[in-house]
Amino acid sequence: MTELHPEIKKVLERIIDRSQDTRKKYLDNINDMENSSEIDRNTISCSNMAHVAASSPKNDQLNILMNKKPNIGIVSSYNDMLSAHKPYENYPSLIKSIAHQYGATAQMAGGVPAMCDGITQGRVGMELSLMSRDVIAMSTAIALSHGVYDSAICLGICDKIIPGLFIGALSFGYLPVIFMPAGPMSSGLPNEEKANVRKAFAKGEVSREELIKAESKAYHGEGTCTFYGTANSNQIIMEIMGVHIPGAAFVHPNSDLRHAYNVLAVEQAVKINSKGRDVRPIGKIIDERSFVNAIIGLLATGGSTNHTLHLPAMAAAAGIKLLWEDFDDLSKIIPLLSKVYPNGSSDINQFHAAGGVSFIIGELLNNGLLDGSAQTIWGENLFDYVYEPTLINSKINWKKSEVKSFDLDILRYVKKPHQNDGGLKMLNGNIGKCVAKISAVKEQFRYIKAKTLVFDDQEEVKKAYEKGKLNRNVIIVVRNQGPKANGMPELHSLTPMLSNVQDLGFKVALLTDGRMSGASGKILAAIHVTPEAIDNGVIGKIEDDDEIEIDANNGKLNILTDISKRKNSLLKDMKKNQSFGRNIFNTLRIHSQGSENGGGIKLID
Question: At what angle do helices 288-301 and 307-317 cross, to 10 degrees?
Fold first, then answer.
């Protein structure tokens, strides 16, 4: 067994040390729940229990009422508008049927909302997106609040849904919880071809009809989108954190293997239930090692920048304090092993065929770059996730993985990686802190010193682009886009036009207190700037033609113009946040934390 890299040990020990008090409080809380009558169905009044079992089939009612068998709670994000979540439509009935086979009952505990960033991109609905993570967490807590479950299965895949489900599950940390993915859609129009059509549309070279044809060829069926954005980053992180069955992340929704995985997940949820002999409470198996491994997996695969928000929030729910410096220090030693669009031309199905998550975990473990001692819902520890499934008589049989890349253009080994450091960087300077995803940004574009053009929303940027005002060496500043200002929407719709400006030979970068996208591409984007403008951040003082230096190679973010006598530019018009449901989120926005703490409700003291 290869010894863990000393820098990883250092980061891990640092996190453990800073989280000592809060983690203890969290674990004490779990112990209190485990010893509480609130979770013992035998102490619940007969009237209350009658409500629990009233709508269950007759053959389940007695088992639930008399507490004879384990009862699994199902929390689902199903809707049939999201391609990734459509497969979950029939999962509750499937889970119940499988649970019966293994001597248990299962009930649909509750549903959580699941919005699609791909649909709300560039529109006002995106201003609800990040805040929806907190709504999902609260909805998960409500689903589990009845205290009648012995384990739980969470059904979710996409951007804010997995982090929200995870946070909600950790608030019931005494429960064993398994996350059940549904898999990606089959490959459609190649991602690079799709991106080229988008850029051509931004130039006015193709019609809207041609654009929608291309988009529909790319997104064409059930399952997760096949580029490597936040949804698929979620799946890799869940597997590396050990809350999936090994290898489950990227199996097609309608395959026999996917069905076998579903059977196995339910069987395991029964085995590790709180009444059994192998109890694995999610709040105890998930610890500091789990989160360090999650960051490493993100870096090694060039994953979504959104997880510099989500992972700190998820960790806080477990009493663990993550900071961006943890990401940055790990990024210096974790090599980039995979290239999946937008970092490369391949999609997530090709990544899976090339060796997938099993290769990533095995190769990192073999080189001391992952903590294999971390606990999991399956096997002894993370070393049991380096196995390949084979389907024999409709059941999964496991074979120790060879840890081999079947396509070196997609997956490479630690000794000869795509690049020597990870895909994310923390930038710091007199403007504040921010993050940048550089795995898809060519070396010559990772540094820029240029004058600014300043905007207060992305529509203003689009209008300036259409008038040709961006055709210069320029740093585009889009401020008042932070969590407190307007919910921190993604600005991904700016990517095609900024890519066009760069293609003309100009140096261009984006600087914002908002988000970019899980699919951040080839433009240098210094994002999640904190403090945000509305929190009296320096970004709110920047004006047109100020000179700024963004150095993603050395982690620097500085304004070179003297702005010491300027006042902060606050939001122009708060009334714009009051339509299309945004008024309901006022309280969440007002009390939202800064980006480094996750950009949502406070989860840790």
Answer: 170
* DSSP per-residue letters across 451-509: EEEEESSHHHHHHHHHTTTT-SSEEEEE-S-SHHHHS--B-GGGHHHHHHHHHTT--EE
Q: Indicate if the pLDDT at residue 573 is higher than 60.
A: no
**SS3 (DSSP) at 416:** coil
Q: Which of 17-21, 99-103, 248-252, 565-569 shows the lowest mean pLDDT across its residues? A: 565-569
Of 12, 179, 301, 321, the closest CA to residue 311 belongs to 321
Q: Which residues pair with residue 448 across a beta bridge? A: 550
Burial track 186-223 (b if 16+ CB lie within 10 A, e otherwise): eebbbbeebbebbbbbbeeebeeeebeebbeebbeebb
Alpha helices in 54-190 (DSSP H): 58-65, 91-101, 117-120, 129-144, 161-170
Task: Report yes or no: 206 and 200 within 8 Å, Cβ to Cβ.
Answer: yes
Handedness of CA 8, 9, 15, 19 (dihedral sign): positive
Q: Whole-number mean pLDDT of the chain?
A: 91
Any residues with CB less than 8 A from the CB of 137 and at least 6 apart, and which?
Answer: 163, 164, 165, 167, 168, 171, 317
Query: Given CA atoms 323, 325, 330, 331 in this order, what sign does their dihedral have?
Result: positive
Tokens at residue 555, please?
Answer: 């982690």
Side-chain-side CA neighbours of 121 within 13 Å: the count stands at 15
Residue 518: pLDDT over 70: no
Give yes or no for a contact between 235 and 249, defined as CB atoms under 8 angstroms apart.
yes
Structural domains of the chain, ranges and CATH numbers in brackets: 6-35+69-186+221-400 (no CATH), 187-220 (no CATH), 424-597 (3.50.30.80)
Query: What Rg, from alpha-carbon coordinates, does the chain have?
Result: 24
**Does the global pTM surpass 0.85?**
yes
Q: What is the DSSP letter of 256?
A: H
Q: What angle do CA 593, 288, 167 make, to 5 degrees?
A: 45
CA distance 127 to 136: 15
What span, in angstroms and rounded, lies between the C-alpha atoms of 324 and 528?
Answer: 11
Note the pLDDT tens digit of each residue in 289-321: 999 999 999 999 999 889 999 999 999 999 999
Please state the φ and ψ torsions of residue 324, each to the nearest 5 degrees.
-60, -30
Q: How many residues does the chain have?
A: 605
Pair 163, 314: CB distance under 8 Å: yes
Average pLDDT rounded to a whole number, residues 503-509: 94
Residue from 110, 128, 109, 111 nearest 119 by CA? 128
| 547-551 and 447-455 strand pairing | antiparallel
Integer Cα distance of 134 and 131 in angstroms: 6
Does residue 213 contact residue 334 with C-beta atoms inside 8 Å? no
Phi/psi-derived region of residue 131, left when phi > 0, alpha when psi is between -120 and 50, beta in every other case: alpha
Q: What residues does 549 pair with on adjacent strands? A: 449, 558
Segment (H or E) for 71: strand 71-76
What is the C-alpha to C-alpha distance for residues 147 and 55, in angstroms, rounded to an integer? 17
